Amino acid sequence: MTIKKNILLEDTTLRDGEQAPGIAFSKEMKINIFNALVQTGVKWIEAGIPAMKGEEVGALQEILERKDEVNIIGWNRGVLEDIKYTLSLGFKAIHIGLPTSNIHLKHSVSKDRNWLLATASDMIKFAKDKGVFVSISAEDIGRTDINFLQEYATNVEQAGADRLRLSDTIGILNSQQYAQRVSAVRQVSSIDLQCHCHNDFGLAVANTLAGLEAGARYFHVCVNAMGERAGMPDLAQMVMALQHFYQIDTGVDTRQLTSLSHKVAQASQYAISPWQPIVGSNVFAHESGIHVNGMLKDSKTFEPFEPEMVGGQRRLVIGKHSGRAILQNILEEDGIKTDPQALENCLALVRKTAEKYPSGLPAHVLYELYRQAEGAGL
Questions:
Q1: Confidence label for 378 from pLDDT (cuts 50, 70 and 90)
Q2: What is the rounded distance in angstroms from the CA atom of residue 222 to the CA atom of residue 13?
Q3: What angle do CA 317, 321, 326 make, to 5 degrees?
Q4: Which of 100, 150, 179, 315 could be disulfide-bonded to 144 (CB atoms 3.0-4.6 Å)?
């Protein structure tokens, strides 16, 4: 099944992302990240939790000054006072978090299914009477009975909810299982669905794509795959996967993906892994002799897309696995005419020296090794 072209990306870096242990954005950081998301082209942003009060509200009030140009969501517990307070701040869209699995109903909110159905309906009607967009969760769908999930979906649609968020809260579903739940809800309800997939088994992106293929319209992402425990689907990965595999433009300016990633990494004080897909420093780095030889002839040889597309930069690294081609290329670009035997000798010196330079030999070290290779004859 193909994905609909009218799908909508919603970023939750400022809510689920900040809920990652040890993350606490200051008011200034929160506003800066929000503005960066908007500048990048994100049109739906879950901006935070108003019930936290304090500095959180100060940031949200400033963020809400842009509510006419972007859809800003305020997250709430399934508590009427939370919703009333969020609405008093001027939000035009809210989300209500409620669990649907027996284990969460029992141990998280100490309630039963009847309470859930009545509470969800009452809160939706209250908020819809105020004229706002209402999103509501089915939390922990991985451990929710599918028949009850269908009943719940029908219940919230009849109450007037605009969207149902299908949350794999502890990331225990595979792609087939997540898609099955989306399809099951689709069979009984026409309400817009949102994918909310956690990455506990590294399947958040795959599960989100499967959910969209099964008919969901909205999907959640976080910059740098932040979020509770193992995180959420990464914004950059989802944007590029949709573009590459499905030819879907999410409206995000892909050229800003790397700079956005670095901005959030700095604010969170968590470094980006060199192997982070799309934005990691090693994504466009090449050391292996065979790879570099191919890259020097045609950059498509060992890259799925150009680094400029995502604001990245290509690096040809001199190291233990380098071959003669990169040495010759770098030396001759600097005006040094090379000799085949000297190159062979230089390569032996490079491999012997490489372990002292984990990030690759700097050019000046290569020049010095080549001079040694020329003179020594080894």
A1: very low
A2: 5
A3: 50
A4: 100
